[in-house]
Amino acid sequence: MSTITTARTVFDIKDLNLWYGNHHALKKIHFPINKKEVTAIIGPSGCGKSTFIKTLNLMINYVPNVKMTGEINYNGQNILNEKLDLVELRKNVGMVFQKGNPFPQSIYDNVAYGPRIHGTKRKTHLDEIVTKSLMDVALWDEVKDRLHTPALGLSGGQQQRLCIARALATKPDVLLMDEPTSALDPISTLKIEELILNLKEKYTIVIVTHNMQQASRVSDKTAFFLMGELIELDDTSTIFSNPADERTEGYISGRFG
Amino acid sequence: MEKIMPAKDRLLKSGKNGLGNEMRGKVLVILCAVIMISVTISITIFLGTKGLQSFIKNGVSPIEFITSTKWNPTNKANPEYGAFPFIFGSFAVTFLSALVAAPLGIGAAIFMTEIAPSWGKKILQPVIELLVGIPSVVYGFIGLSVLVPFIRENIGGLGFSLLAGTIVLSIMILPTITSIATDAMSSLPKSLREGSYALGATRWQTIRKVLIPAGLPTLLTAVILGMARAFGEALAVQMVIGNVRDLPSSFLDASATLTTIITLNMGHTTYGSVENNTLWSMGLILLIMSFVFIILIRYFSSRRKMQ
């Protein structure tokens, strides 16, 4: 397993254990995540992949009875132990959820939400951020004439791209995506995948997916989780052509999961 | 040997019995609906004709009735029928009590759903149910024996006042507003909170900038239902407001509302007399206002669906 930490590492997870009450959901995870790479996390339902991605921006804190040990180093700072500025962490580590969850506000206000809560007030500056974020997700041309109409009037795929734009508006360097296309049709899925490939020039992306083809299409590194353990983490091409562990091979060849 | 029927006949035959039952059920529920609708329509028509009689038959000027501040129907030589002080009183206690109860109720709802969902709900829920269950005469009685003397001794005036009416009504409509506002907040999807927290928002920012705007149509419905209750409440208000015919010039002045004047005077006026008819006119105003409240609630719930 190639888990060597380098200067290109954004997240360096060491010996992470997580319990939901008595249930040991993540077991001794060692996981470096590299800058400007797409890391895909695959595995069967209940393997801990969603739990894992939620630890990276500590959204896991909202689940009751969670206990964690180990280290999650983000740019050299352990977000578990030190007195952490949660606001700053989440500004830098954005997240996109399974289903697009725009606020029941206008398209503009959705994208401007993050910058506004972080103190950006000037209209010109906000306009600039909104325009740029919407362009980054290739939504600008579709919505530029109706920025002030309700975001919930958009299609499912557009809503999901809007949520990505909303996450990008706080200028993060990591983008976490928790099964971002599981509720979308194939064409919208394709658009999101193209978007991921474009975004990786500027952002580090971690994506949880049920869809192995998706992992092979978009990611540089793939991690295979099984029953709370990280079984294998390697270059995507290696994982899909020549996995080291037979359980990985069993999963990707469709023998279980 | 049993005769085997073609499938088509079997289907038709089996339909017969079921159809009879269907019909009976349908007639029964239609009957219920018809009774309800006809009762509502009858009351509206009755109140409409009775309420308009003072203007049509007795020649009371509707403009005077709504705008004049002089109420003196018993003066034989020169009776005056200006109901403005009561209309004003009704609106004043309604809006003032909503102004007090809306922030309290919505605040309590947010506390229960966002801040302390577990124990907050455990304590506040029964408190609210209890408040709903207390009869209005008890509220009035408490207001009369505690609130009125308190205002007289500590704030000033007679004690019987617009202020006393407002306070009693605020407490009475608080549970209505709180329970509907709680439903409004707890029905908001979890994904909204997640989305906001994931962008680095604090809990207060999430409540103020995402949850309250998202729940606003229902929160407004809660306030309007509270106002509708305040507007129609008679007994408790009558016991503390003082019931004078003059326009109040301050919070501490005694006042009257449409409902209190109706309850006070309906017993000693003769059916069909001018004064009695003007009371019906006040009833008509109450009915019209409740229609207005319903229209407002409809408007807000259609906005909620649009979102």
Structure commentary:
The complex is a heterodimer of chains A (257) and B (307). Chain A has a single domain, classed as Rossmann fold (3-Layer(aba) Sandwich), CATH 3.40.50.300. The longest helix of chain A has 14 residues, at 123-136. In chain A, the strands form two sheets. In chain A, strands 6-7-8-3-9-10 form a six-stranded mixed β-sheet, with helices on both faces. In chain A, strands 2-1-4-5 form a four-stranded antiparallel β-sheet, covered by helices on one side. The model of chain A has no long low-confidence stretch (mean pLDDT 91). Chain A is 35% helix and 26% strand. Chain A has helices spanning 49-56, 86-92, 107-117, 123-136, 140-143, 156-168, 186-199, 212-218, 236-241, 246-252; strands spanning 9-20, 23-34, 38-42, 66-74, 77-78, 93-96, 174-178, 204-208, 221-226, 229-235. In chain A, 45% of the residues are buried. Chain A is an alpha/beta fold and 257 residues long. By secondary structure, chain B is an all-alpha fold. Chain B has a domain at 91-270: MetI-like (MetI-like fold). Chain B contains eleven helices and two strands, in the order H-H-E-E-H-H-H-H-H-H-H-H-H. Chain B has helices at residues 7-56, 62-67, 84-115, 119-133, 136-154, 162-186, 190-198, 203-232, 235-241, 258-265, 274-306, and strands at 71-72, 80-81. In chain B, helix 3 packs antiparallel against helix 4 (119-133) and helix 7 runs antiparallel to helix 8 (203-232). The mean pLDDT of chain B is 90. Chain A binds chain B through residues 57, 59, 62, 86-91, 94-95, 97, 99, 101-105, 113-114, 116-118, 150, 152, 163, 166-167, 170, and chain B through 189, 191-202, 205, 209-210, 213-214, 306-307.
